[in-house]
């Protein structure tokens, strides 16, 4: 029965690829373990929207390992080897966290802002502080820590003030709060390092700073474990 189902699935993929023959220049890419649409987009220097449209994909999170994608007007050849994450470091929480991000999305988070670290992750004044705080001048540029899709941009989350939330994979998202101005809208695709907001003092903030979170499966993690 399993063999029959596998054969049927393979036939379905083949028929689908035949039904939607690509036009023009491009290459085929086979999705490897740890890849997501944003990394694939960066590798070939082709926009996410172009890849989604060429393959009639409605939800970028639906990619499956082994799926074959048509990359229109690709500027590079497909990678030769599958992306294999390094082994987790024993007893090393930051290394384990970074390896997990690689394995579950091929993610490598970067600092969203050059600022002074003024608040740590954990319990603070009897309350749980679910991220880190980086003090900076009002208007300082806040950049996406990783590539992804903006799933929230607004000021409806109470104490967070103006906040941007970027989804990076099925498991990971990052949060940028207290912004003076959000510079991206919900639904936008952003590249790692792209400007998404300006430092401010909105919401529950005693001074201009960025409150930054990394969440795995909706649960807040210590961002310092993921940052270089």
Specify the number of helices. Answer: 4
Helix and strand composition category: alpha+beta
Q: Tell me the total number of β-strands.
A: 14
Average pLDDT figure:
82
Helix content: 10-25%
Oligomer, anyone? single chain
Count of spatially separate domains: 2
- The arrangement of helices and strands along the chain is HEHHEHEEEEEEEEEEEE
Please report the distance between the alpha carbons of the first and last residues.
48 Å
Task: Return residue spans where pLDDT drops below 50 for at least 5 consecutive residues.
Answer: 1-21, 81-91
Overall spatial form = globular
CATH architecture classification name of the largest domain: Distorted Sandwich
Named CATH topology of the largest domain: Glucose Permease (Domain IIA)
Q: What CATH first level of the largest domain would be assigned?
A: Mainly Beta
Strand content: 25-35%
- Main pleated-sheet profile: 10 strands, antiparallel
User: In CATH, what is the homologous superfamily of the largest domain?
Assistant: Glucose Permease (Domain IIA)
Calculate Rg over CA atoms: 20 Å
């Amino acid at each position: 029965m399993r063999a029959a189902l596998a054969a049927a699935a393979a036939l379905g993929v083949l028929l689908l690829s035949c039904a939607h023959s690509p036009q023009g220049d491009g290459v085929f890419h086979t999705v490897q373990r740890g890849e997501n649409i944003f990394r694939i987009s960066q590798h070939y220097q082709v926009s996410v929207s172009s890849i989604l449209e060429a393959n009639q994909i409605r939800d970028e999170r639906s990619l499956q390992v082994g799926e074959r994608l048509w990359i229109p007007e690709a500027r590079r050849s497909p990678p030769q080897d599958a992306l294999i994450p390094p082994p987790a470091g024993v007893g090393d929480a930051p290394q384990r966290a970074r390896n997990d991000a690689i394995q579950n999305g091929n993610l490598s988070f970067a600092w969203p802002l050059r600022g002074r670290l003024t608040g740590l992750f954990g319990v603070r004044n009897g309350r749980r502080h679910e991220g880190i705080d980086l003090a900076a001048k009002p208007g300082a540029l806040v950049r996406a820590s990783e590539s992804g899709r903006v799933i929230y941009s607004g000021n409806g989350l109470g104490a967070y003030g103006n906040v941007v939330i970027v989804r990076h994979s099925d498991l990971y998202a990052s949060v940028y709060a207290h912004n003076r101005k959000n510079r991206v809208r919900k639904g936008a695709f952003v590249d790692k390092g792209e400007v998404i907001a300006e430092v401010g003092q909105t919401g529950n903030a005693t001074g201009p700073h960025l409150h930054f979170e990394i969440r795995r499966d909706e649960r807040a993690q210590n961002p310092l474990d993921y940052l270089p």
